[in-house]
Structure formats: structure tokens, C-alpha cells
Write a structure and sequence with these properties.
By secondary structure, the chain is an alpha+beta fold. It contains 4 helices and 5 strands. Bound molecules: tetrahydrodeoxyuridine.
Amino acid sequence: MYEKLISESIKAKKLSHSPYSKFRVGAALLTKDNKIFHGANVECSSYSLTICAERVAAVKAITEKNKKFKAVAIATDSNDFAFPCGACRQFLSEFSENMDVILVKSKTKYQIYKLQNLFPHKFKLK
Ligand code: THU
């Protein structure tokens, strides 16, 4: 079902700018209108300014007027399945709280979660 999105997330790892951690993350975000936006982690020498792959993809989509997401595929080189960080869970859940989150090790090794299950209680202003 998500074969294309999964392979796009693996390709997106090549866009990673990660000279400090050497930990590449690629994201492919599928919008409600079936568009795919790519993201990769972008690191900064002032480490906390680093931006995660998922938020890069989300910001690209949102600023092109695509605010509803069906799924995000997240690919890394890790031997473990790499879950999105808390900040990315909050960020994505503000736009589509029950989207699918696909953790990708390879084209055939992946896990699919509902964002709601990974992040049941998001921060809300009211
Ligand atoms: N990273 C992501 O891109 N997404 C996450 O959800 C967690 C971590 C990146 C940030 C940093 O460049 C590298 O992984 C190591 O923490």
C-alpha cells in the first residue's frame, strides 16, 4: 500500500545534512491529495538548532498549502526501527492526529503505527 512512499523515504536519506551525528534520516510525507513531500534532517553546529526530517517535510507541505496528511514514512540507517521524536509527534499531530507513521529499515522491512497511538495526548492551547 505504501511501497512508493517507503522507497521515497529511503531516497530522501541522501538529502540529509548530518555532519555531526552522521545519523541520516529521510522522510516522505503523503498529503490528503496524494502529493509527496520529501524531508531530511538538517544539522547545525549549534546542535539544538538541528531540524528533523519529518518537520522539514511537513513545513514544505504546509507552506505549499497542503495541511492534511495521510502518512509519513521515516527511513534511517539504524538496525532498530527509529521512532519520530516527541517534537515531531506534536508537530505532525497538530495537522493530522491520526495519520499513519511508517518506520522504514528497508523496502521490505517496515512497521506502521497510528500517530494517535504514538502520541495520544498532545499539547493544546485550550
Ligand atoms: N532526527 C530526525 O531527523 N528525526 C527524528 O524524529 C529524531 C532525530 C535527527 C536529528 C539529528 O540530526 C539526528 O537525527 C540525530 O539525533
